[in-house]
Amino acid sequence: TTLLDDDDVRLPAVQTLGNVVLSEENIREARDCLPILMSFVQNSHADDALRLASLVVLTNIATISEWHDEYCPLLHRLYNLVDSNNLHIQLQSLRLLVNLSCNREMIPSLLAAEGPRKLSTLVVATTNEAILLRVLTLLATLANAVCEDELNPSLDLPTEDKAASPDTMYARLFGVNVRDRLVAQTQALFENHEDPEIQRQATRLYRALKD
Known about the structure:
It is found in: Membrane; Mitochondrion membrane. Keywords: Membrane, Mitochondrion, Transmembrane, Transmembrane helix. This protein is an all-alpha fold. It has helices at about 10-20, 25-30, 35-40, 50-60, 75-80, 85-100, 105-110, 120, 130-150, 170-175, 180-190, 195-210. The longest helix has 21 residues, at about 130-150.
């Protein structure tokens, strides 16, 4: 972490960390870097290259679920970056969110955080396919968890750091008018999109929202 405090070597140090944090052993050794990496993502003044490199490392570390709860303060920022105009940052934020959503214990926190404002505009065939696939995967995982676990937004979502009701990720999925729009959008995708995995994830989301 000392290297990460030095402005001159910060970016190459994080990029190097991203290249080595691939095995479980190395991931465990990099765990102490979580707070400073998160600060690089949170800091609005950080340059995009440093933010992207930090997101890559955080995504790799998140392949081990035992520290996922430490990501909770970062969730709103990750959702905010899904609205980014930088395709690489948008995609890497989604990759990290998908990793976190694989942990069922993280679902309530993911639903309670303030969701992306442009979310529904991404669920269309013209969206970059890599982005679209991960948006659908994330939403389908969240929606299925809500249905299977019968989550109640008033009772089951954590109150700490919870966004205002209309802004939560839960509301971005199940809010008034939003749900019907997503149902129509996902139906169009699984009926017309050529990519089979996008079709599959669109079908998962469609069925969860229709339940």
